[in-house]
Amino acid sequence: MQWYHTLIFAVAIGGASINLKSWRTVFAISLIIGSYGASVLYVNNSLPYPIVFAGACDAAFAFVLYLVAKFKWEILVFNVLRLMLLVNILYGLNVHFFEPSAMIYYASLELITLLALIFIGGRRYLGSVQGHVHSNAGWLVRHFCSLRSSLEAKRESAPWTSV
Amino acid sequence: MMMGISEAVAAKLTGAFSGAFLALIFMVPKSRFDFFRRLIFSIIAGVVFAPVSQHYIALGDTWVDLAAHAGIAALASWWIVGGFVRLSQTWKK
User: Fold this and answer.
1) What is the pLDDT of residue B78?
2) For residues A50, A54, A60 and A62, what is the CA-based torsion angle, rounded to 10 degrees?
3) How far apart are CA B28 and CA B36, in angstroms?
4) How far does Cα B16 stand from its chain's mean position?
């Protein structure tokens, strides 16, 4: 296990532990870390078609998240999983033609996972920042703080579940 | 590598279903009817047009490559069906 694996798991555990009251946050974190952990285990055991497996994990977890999502921030996490899936597809297709660097592929997936975990875990602190911001604060700060209310808004219902 | 007909059909069906699932993640349909319409078209297109995809994107001849070609064809057809539906709706207006 490398240091970046430890870092990602530590961020996930930390994020989940400070959001224990919100089962949706813990669920989103467990989906992301589940997909990541399964992919890492698969790759470390040198099993065949690791890119396909990683892509399938991301697709399955993204689908589950889309089904249970109720708020806009969950749709944002769904989009992060879609981005990871896209990275897998692009790398899987390019392997045949351009021989891209595997290190960039792994690093980009790990960076996306880490940023997503920090976002999900630290989302509740956007609200506490909002409470302390002075009304004369710069537009960037105010805009950043208004993110929370927009992220906590309810999403539209899953369109394809209607007849 | 030569494959039997049943093997090739299994590869194409696996690839077509995988491609349709991927397409479902990236292009979420608007209604259940739209979902079934796209699903049926993409599975048929995945099985039928896998060799066409093989001709243009030469990944290889193995079982997995054939499945990947069927997946690409299914993904493309999912998108194309949606485009045609949108075009026809615009035309009606």
Assistant:
1) 93
2) -170
3) 12
4) 5
Dist CA B67 CA B52 (whole Å): 13
Residue among A59, A63, A163 minimizing CB distance to B32: A163
Which residue type sits at B4?
A: G
CB pair distance less than 8 Å for A162 and B31 = yes
Locate the chain B residue with the closest alpha carbon to A156.
B30
Contact A59/B34, CB-based, under 8 Å? no
CB pair distance less than 8 Å for B31 and A89: no
Low-confidence ranges of chain A (pLDDT < 50): 163
Alpha-carbon span A6 to A2, nearest angstrom: 7
Sign, Cα dihedral of B54, B19, A105, A79: positive
The answer to whether ipTM exceeds 0.90 is no
| CB contact at 8 A, A71 and A151 | yes
Q: Quick one: tokens of B78?
A: 């999912």
- For A91, half-sphere exposure in the C-beta direction (CA atoms, 13 angstrom radius) is 23
| Cβ atoms of A77 and A30 closer than 8 Å | no
Residue A159 near residue A67, CB atoms below 8 Å: no
Structure tokens at A29: 């974190």
Q: pTM score, two decimals?
A: 0.80
